[in-house]
Amino acid sequence: MVSLGPENVRIGAHAADKADAIRQAGAILVDGGYIQPGYVDSMMRRETVTATYLGNGIAIPHGLPQDRELIQHTGLSVLQLPYGVEWNPGEVVYLVVGIAARSDEHIGVLQKLTDVLEDEATVMRLARTQDVNEIAAALDPARSAEAPAAPAPSPPILGAGQRVDVEVTGGTGLHARPASVFVSLAKQFNSDIRVSHAGKTANGKSMVSMLRLGVERGGIISITADGPDAAKALQTLREAVETGLGEEDEAAHAAPEPAVQVGRPESFPPEAAPDEPGLIRGVAAAPGIAIAPLHQLRKQADEVLDQHAVDAAAEHSDFDHAVDRAGAELEELHRTVGRRAGEMEARIFAAHREFLEDPDLVDAVHHRIDGGESAAFAWRETIDERANDLAALSDPLLAGRANDLRDVGARVMRLLVRRNEAEATTLPDHEIILVAEDLTPSDTASLDPDLVKGILTALGGPNSHTAILARSLDIPAVVGAGHQVLELASGVTAVLDGSRGTVLPDPDAERLERARQAQHGAGQRRAVVLEAAYRPAITVDGHRVEIAANIGAVPEAERAVNAGGEAVGLLRTEFLFQDRTDPPSEEEQYEAYRAMAESLGGLPLIVRTLDAGGDKPLPYISMAHEDNPFLGQRGIRLSFSMPDLFRSQLRAILRAASHGEIKIMFPMITSVHEFRRGRALVEEVRREVDGPNVDVGIMVEVPSSAVMADLLAREVDFFSIGTNDLTQYTLAMDRGHPALAREADGLHPAVLRMVDQTVRAAHGEGKWVGVCGNLAADPAAAPILIGLDVDELSVGVPNIPALKAQIREMAYEDAKELARRALACSAASEVRALTGEAA
After folding, report:
1. What is the C-alpha separation between 833 and 471, in angstroms, rounded?
2. What CATH architecture applies to the domain 544-834?
3. Residue 238: in which H helix or E strand, if any?
4. What are the residues whose beta carbons fall under 8 Å from the beta carbon of 734, sequence distance 6 or more?
5. How far apart are CA 771 and CA 755, in angstroms?
6. Residue 770 β-bridge partners
7. 271 within 8 A of 770, measured Cβ to Cβ
8. pLDDT band, very low/low/confident/very high, at 14 (cuts 50, 70, 90)
9. Where are the domains positioned within the chain?
10. pLDDT of residue 112
11. Are the C-beta atoms of 564 and 801 separated by less than 8 Å?
């Protein structure tokens, strides 16, 4: 087995940038005789193919598979950077682990790194230690191999005992998101499901109960089931736990979160960095430097509640109504955060919904009401009791979920006492650094990054959902700074460094200038990337790909242009129709479409007509219950069934087309007949409003449209492939199903063959093809899609600069070869292995 010795570890290093860090890590391998110098260049090229940032301050640069002949024998190097280096925008690395492996001999070190990655204290210690032997001991896979093997879980018992033991291997244990997946699955069965761990037993259908088990990664849980479908329940839940409850999928496919320095105040910056007078130390939670006046968040004090109630029936009714209202608010918040920050972050509020629907929690409140307590008092006491239980858990990640439960508690309490949400918090209309004892995820999700330039809290940790949201919203944050920060005066200018976890209130002129210079330096790379984002995405051998934006709100059009977007490849018009009691008027829609077209300054705006129904119901449309909503009345089918609503939208779009280059796109087209019917209606309405001629295209998101692409290409003006739906329909896997999310991978060869077939059919008729699903933003997928000759990639606004930079550093001919090999694979895992992600 490969070993890491202290001679291959360099401590106390400094790197000007990522390239410098990689070259230093590679030089150690060259000096040790492990690689030829040319392999360092291969390590640099690898960065354009796939991410080597693992998270939590660790990166693993390594070369491309085709350059393995430059490796003389397998070796490892470690470069310690106490002050860090920006790896990618928002990612700071402190340990650079260079890998040169001729085969799979390096797997041990990757496993070892995974263990270290989950242990924040170890990462902090290794980032500042001055002992090379300590780093070598922590990362040496040979020493890992000598450790005694962990006991294997008991074999499953699916017979009379109706019990199965299984190890929790995904993510960081049963924290909120994986626990919500488990609970969601358990609720599908009629059997009573119990989960035991370390002498505690939980209701498998109760989110709070599951979290109170405190199961960390590697923990063994016993799942028991009693009821008519017990065996099936155990089988399903065992498989779900073994495959990571969705957490493994997140790590593999989601864009990496920005790196943060984590730990206690005394840990960072390293001792070598002198303190500024007056400097306050906290925990780094979201990177970046903010300079703005402080603003203390003063929330409305908790109401004095009447403990007793006269009418229990009225209290039960009030409580049920408040829970229903809170659930609707969380659904809206889930959609909003999904648009602003991404689906992974939005899942936080799906977990909140599980709290709200927790049967143990709800039953406990109803029981207390039956005992004579008021609904508000019973709810507050029940939430406090369970939140305190969670906060007492030894694992900080699980203990941090107490804040999420209190967030849900506050939401329902506000409704029970009939307090307006806007009354609870009021922020100024100028730039601030927000100071609070703590923030809930709901608080954070509602912040405006244009005004809230930084977050400072007395409590909290770097892995809280609040910190995750702050990172996704690009708001620098320092948490856990102590109650002293609550004494800082509002209006005083401060410097907050979210990368180092420090705050400097009221700096003098010299310190303020130094901070501004540091802010400029920290943002210089981002500025360079953003500036380069205006350059076209042209490969090194001259092939151009258009990069567009997916948006779902009026302000996002301008942000798309500022990020270097060359068009809006997908405008989700649902934002105008959802979260209201009646449909938008034609005038309201026209104003929104016109504003976006004008913001784009002549760049194309592709407007997808309403894609609602089925899984996305509208409250003002009466629809029958559907057992399979993804296969029901949705998309263009719903529009055809409501011609007045459809015509109103088309009129608004075609009127707005006079103010910019607008194209129309129909969702869920399954046949030539459907497209012809839609296009005829567009032409009829165009004549009514005397609008300009516009291109009309379709979403390719069902297999029938891909299979019929040759016939459709003769009729449409363009195709845009929605890989999210195309994947679930092609693989017959609900993309929202918690147990199947890991398998519903858009890089499955069957999906890629659908893309290939669509592109070839379109190009045969001189039509262009875009991809607007999540696959377009996957760094592993971009070279394959380009190799399949996709003309346009449409992604979320934050992804645009990095995607364009990636394309400018790849070769079109290499991409075509990669795509050819991907089409010949038999599974998505093989395709991902081709891109180097399996290394």
Report:
1. 29
2. Alpha-Beta Barrel (3.20)
3. helix 230-242
4. 630, 728, 740, 744
5. 9
6. 720, 792
7. no
8. confident
9. 6-145, 163-253, 280-297+425-517, 312-353+361-388+396-423, 544-834
10. 53
11. yes
Return the residue matching tokens 């392999």.
39
SS3 753: helix
- Provide the pairing of β-strand 493-497 with 289-296: antiparallel
Instruction: Give the Å distances, CA to CA, from 474 to 55, 415, 492, 531, 555.
Output: 17, 31, 23, 18, 17
| CATH tag, 6-145 | 3.40.930.10
Q: What are phi and psi of 610, to 5 degrees?
A: -50, 125
The token pair that represents 92 in the structure block: 């700071």
Q: Which helix (H) or strand (E) holds 803?
A: helix 800-808
Kindly report the length of the chain. Answer: 839
Beta bridge partners of 560: none
Least Cα distance to 442 among 486, 415, 409 occurs for: 409
Three-state secondary-structure class, residue 700: strand
Which tens digit of pLDDT belongs to each residue from 764-783? 999 999 999 778 888 889 99
Reading the block at residue 376, the tokens are 């508000």
Q: For residues 757 and 763, what is the distance between their CA atoms, to the nearest angstrom?
A: 10
Backbone angles phi, psi at 314, to 5 degrees: -65, -35
Nearest to 284 by CA among 128, 522, 498: 498
Rounded Cα–Cα distance for residues 413 and 720 (Å): 45
The CA-based angle 295-330-725, given to 5 degrees, is: 120
131's tokens: 């002992």
What gap in Å lies between CA 299 and CA 199, rounded to an integer? 40
Residues assigned a catalytic role: 62, 175, 465, 772
- Do residues 237 and 265 touch, judged by C-beta distance below 8 A? no
Q: Could you tell me what percent of the chain has a pLDDT over 90?
A: 32
Q: Is the pTM of this model over 0.90?
A: no
Q: Is 234 exposed, middle or buried, given 0-12, 13-18 or 19+ CB atoms closer than 10 A? A: buried
CATH fold of the domain at 312-353+361-388+396-423: Enzyme I; Chain A, domain 2 (1.10.274)
CA distance linking residue 629 with residue 640, whole number of Å: 17
Return mean pLDDT, the chain.
80
- Among 57, 10, 88, 14, residue whose Cα is nearest residue 500: 57
Distance CA 290, CA 503 (A): 9
Alpha carbon distance 494, 440 (integer Å): 23
- Token pair, residue 576, equals 């105008």
Q: 3-state class of 435 per DSSP?
A: strand
Question: What's the chain's Rg over C-alpha atoms?
Answer: 27
Side-chain-side CA neighbours of residue 127 (13 Å): 30
pLDDT for 420 equals 52
Smallest CA-to-CA distance from 46 within 61, 31, 33 is with 61
CATH number of the 280-297+425-517 domain: 3.50.30.10
Q: At what angle do helices 230-242 and 176-186 cross, to 10 degrees?
A: 160
Handedness of CA 719, 725, 727, 730 (dihedral sign): negative
> Which strands form 289-296's sheet, in the order they lie side by side?
280-281, 502-505, 493-497, 289-296, 432-436, 452-457, 477-479, 283-286
Residue 270: count other Cβ atoms within 10 Å of its Cβ.
Answer: 17
